[in-house]
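Please fill in the sequence for the structure shown.

STRUCTURE ENCODING:
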């Protein structure tokens, strides 16, 4: 911090800004400690800059594929690090290397290990080579997938490349602190100390044009959460000037309406500061921390006059779009140059002696040390990375050499391989695979040794590149044991909504860390009364209403789940989940994968959909969800009892899930289990709901009722249909029971209310290709899907748009008509 008063070798930071009843806690520090702190900041800034310089050279000389760096942003990030405490979280983007360096979340070696895409978690703990450089993360989990004590470390939620995609998650990280002010549970001390943590966000100025930025800031201002957003404003979005990005070039001016009024619990504080002004930056961040940490007020810090000494990235040169005047100004107002000038100009008299912070020679020495430190770290990272490949080569090449006499072309392969200047893992594996292909007719001990080594190494690389899409801990969803619902003579027949409501009641009683939020979820207990009366019982922190803002409802869930809570994020209708799809796909679905098991976000997305009325209340965009959300469990229960069981299952798991309740099931009668809150439905398991011998009918969700009706009609026509409810689209039928059904019936029909080639294509691929059920078919597989448009609201729109019982009966009957026209004469 910057100190404004000297007294007997003690510097005091007193009132930093003039605002009634708002003070920064007085700090006391000797001049020598003050000097040491300043010079350490300068040292870190120089190290970070040298990392940027050398990183770019490593890309341009071919050692790395791409580079994007944080040069020019060193000073504001050093200031941010000063107020960042254990337990705090950052949700940012790929320019924050100085901040990561300052909080010990990255080292010179790990920075370059990520640049080289080293797959070692030990050397590259942020992503184990799965992310481009500049994407930072701390490890929230132990090796077994259990939570670390997040209060004992400074935390970075794993970065993503979409440049405003980090914003919705930031809202949840901040809101968790507010929740923890009133919510306690066994182990909550690992995640919060009375909710005093702050969530810090960073975003480039141009990305404030994105909707996610505005939606997040709006929600934060409404919720009053402890959040500090830093906007790095360098005047451009890659090559496009700021004035072409937004309605006004000055984002602070645009945000002026968000500025809170005195005495109101709405809005935020807005602070503008220059990126090269070290004392002002320290003051700005101290002020922002006070507002956020002690008053739970969101703060925007607009950092202006940021420079980018090397341009946007290694993909191009900023000289192409910046004027000579702009480039000259950037050279003059480089933050580190200005910081150096400030240090050299600083002097103060203490007890008659003039004290200075540093001489030119001392700063030159720091510059030289920084350059050497970075070069040494880069060299060590490169050697470690290369050793992985050279060890691989050493294991494989002798085995290939041992069988070169078995095929003359292998000699040419080896010669070509040996000419490669920079060998990669790919080169080694291609050599082995081509060798095995050329010797496929051989059966020698040498070839068998190579084959065995290949299988061993492939398993390692599969883990390096493809593990942890889902949890690999003891709490993974597929490990949760099935507990069947218990029914007795006293079990009531109630509306489906009552089953799910009463089950939620048990959940919120059993899991104090659980909470639900969404549009109309709180006061009225959701639009279908599945949460009726629960806000009154559990309070508006745990059963909460939100604004109409689906992307940040999801973001609330992701952020809170990353901090140990068990959020249920409610999206009112399945059609509206499309607002969330970017966050589901880019962020939630990839959390475990992109950190190689270092972080998790077990949020449950509750929604409802399928067959009803209207273009936007009856859609079933399941194929889009399936294809874009691998990494999330996609669960499609046919009833509200099944839905309740899935909630009970997933709350014991550490994986995220989407649970789609059937919109037309809330008023249908179901028998309520006696063991509410306890029974579970296993994920990845189908259910045969009607046995048959002639044809297998596969479906899920609301369509199951229609298929069951059709199957009963088919029985009257002499066709015995087996009905299978998929229940869980991801994971899909892990026991491969559908193939066993097809083996018995020799015919397969998939009925789906998604569009043609939608979810039905996925289901067919799983059954025919993965389960190899094509071997048992006597007829072509048949899909019965919806029309390629949303159903009209007009009366009977559902009947004419989605598979009806009549459609299913007729199309299945036609299969048998083609088989035996005499026994099954044509209908039309």
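FILLED IN BY: designer on duty
SEQUENCE:
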């Amino acid at each position: 911090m910057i100190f404004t008063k000297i007294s007997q070798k003690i510097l005091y930071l007193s009132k930093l800004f003039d605002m009634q009843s708002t003070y920064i806690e007085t700090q006391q520090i000797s001049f020598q400690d003050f000097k040491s702190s300043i010079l350490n900041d300068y040292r870190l800034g120089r190290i970070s800059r040298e990392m940027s310089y050398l990183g770019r050279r490593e890309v341009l000389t071919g050692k790395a594929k791409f580079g994007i760096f944080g040069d020019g942003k060193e000073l504001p990030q050093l200031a941010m690090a000063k107020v960042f405490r254990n337990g705090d979280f950052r949700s940012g983007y790929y320019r924050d290397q100085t901040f990561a360096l300052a909080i010990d979340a990255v080292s010179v070696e790990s920075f370059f290990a990520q640049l080289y895409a080293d797959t070692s978690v030990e050397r590259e703990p942020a992503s184990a080579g799965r992310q481009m450089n500049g994407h930072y993360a701390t490890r929230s989990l132990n090796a077994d997938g259990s939570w670390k004590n997040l209060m004992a470390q400074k935390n970075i939620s794993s970065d993503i490349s979409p440049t405003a995609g980090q914003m919705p998650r930031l809202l949840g990280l901040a809101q968790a602190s507010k929740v923890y002010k009133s919510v306690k549970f066994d182990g909550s001390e690992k995640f919060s100390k009375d909710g005093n943590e702050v969530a810090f966000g960073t975003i480039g100025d141009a990305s404030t044009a994105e909707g996610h930025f505005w939606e997040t800031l709006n929600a934060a201002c409404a919720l009053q959460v402890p959040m500090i957003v830093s906007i790095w404003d360098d005047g451009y979005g890659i090559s496009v000037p700021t004035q072409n990005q937004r309605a006004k070039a000055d984002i602070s001016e645009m945000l002026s309406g968000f500025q809170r009024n005195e005495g109101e619990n709405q809005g935020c504080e807005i602070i503008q500061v220059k990126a090269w002004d070290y004392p002002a930056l320290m003051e700005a961040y101290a002020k922002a921390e006070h507002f956020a940490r002690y008053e739970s007020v969101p703060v925007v810090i607009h950092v202006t006059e940021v420079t980018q000494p090397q341009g946007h990235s290694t993909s191009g040169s900023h000289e192409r779009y910046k004027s000579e005047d702009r480039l000259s100004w950037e050279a003059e107002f480089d933050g580190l140059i200005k910081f150096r000038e400030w240090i050299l100009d600083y002097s103060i008299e203490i007890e008659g002696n003039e004290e200075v912070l540093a001489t030119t020679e001392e700063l030159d020495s720091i510059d030289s040390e920084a350059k050497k430190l970075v070069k040494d770290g880069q060299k060590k990272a490169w050697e470690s990375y290369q050793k992985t490949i050279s060890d691989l080569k050493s294991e494989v090449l002798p085995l290939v050499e041992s069988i070169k006499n078995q095929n003359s072309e292998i000699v040419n392969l080896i010669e070509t391989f040996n000419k490669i200047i920079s060998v990669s893992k790919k080169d080694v594996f291609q050599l082995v695979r081509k060798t095995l292909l050329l010797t496929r007719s051989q059966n020698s001990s040498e070839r068998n040794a190579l084959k065995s080594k290949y299988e061993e190494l492939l398993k390692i690389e599969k883990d390096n590149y493809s593990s942890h899409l889902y949890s690999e801990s003891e709490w993974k969803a597929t490990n949760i044991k099935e507990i069947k619902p218990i029914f007795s003579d006293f079990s009531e027949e109630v509306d489906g909504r009552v089953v799910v409501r009463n089950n939620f009641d048990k959940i919120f009683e059993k899991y104090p860390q659980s909470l639900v939020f969404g549009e109309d979820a709180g006061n009225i207990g959701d639009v279908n009364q599945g949460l009726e009366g629960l806000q009154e019982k559990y309070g508006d922190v745990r059963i909460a209403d939100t604004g109409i803002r689906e992307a940040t409802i999801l973001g609330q869930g992701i952020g809170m789940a990353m901090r140990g809570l068990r959020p249920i994020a409610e999206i009112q209708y399945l059609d509206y989940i499309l607002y969330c799809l970017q966050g589901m796909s880019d962020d939630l679905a990839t959390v475990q994968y992109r950190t190689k098991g270092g972080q998790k976000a077990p949020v449950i997305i509750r929604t409802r959909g399928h067959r009803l009325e209207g273009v936007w209340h009856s859609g079933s965009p399941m194929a889009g969800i399936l294809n874009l959300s691998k990494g999330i469990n996609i669960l499609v229960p046919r009833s509200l009892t099944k839905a309740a069981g899935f909630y009970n299952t997933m709350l014991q798991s550490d994986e995220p899930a989407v649970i789609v309740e059937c919109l037309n099931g809330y008023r249908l009668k179901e028998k309520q289990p006696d063991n509410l809150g306890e029974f579970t439905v296993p994920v990845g398991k189908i259910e045969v709901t009607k046995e048959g011998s002639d044809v297998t009918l596969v479906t899920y969700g609301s369509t199951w009722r229609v298929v069951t009706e059709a199957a009963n009609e088919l029985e009257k026509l002499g066709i015995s249909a087996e009905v299978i409810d998929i229940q869980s689209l991801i994971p899909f039928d892990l026991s491969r029971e559908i193939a066993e059904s097809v083996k018995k019936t020799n015919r397969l029909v998939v009925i789906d209310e998604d569009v043609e080639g939608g979810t039905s294509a996925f289901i067919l691929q799983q059954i025919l290709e993965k389960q190899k059920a094509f071997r048992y078919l006597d007829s072509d597989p048949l899909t019965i899907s919806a029309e390629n448009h949303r159903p009209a609201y007009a009366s009977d729109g559902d009947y004419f748009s989605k598979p009806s019982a009549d459609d299913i009966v007729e199309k299945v009957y036609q299969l048998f008509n083609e088989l035996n026209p005499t026994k099954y004469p044509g209908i039309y």
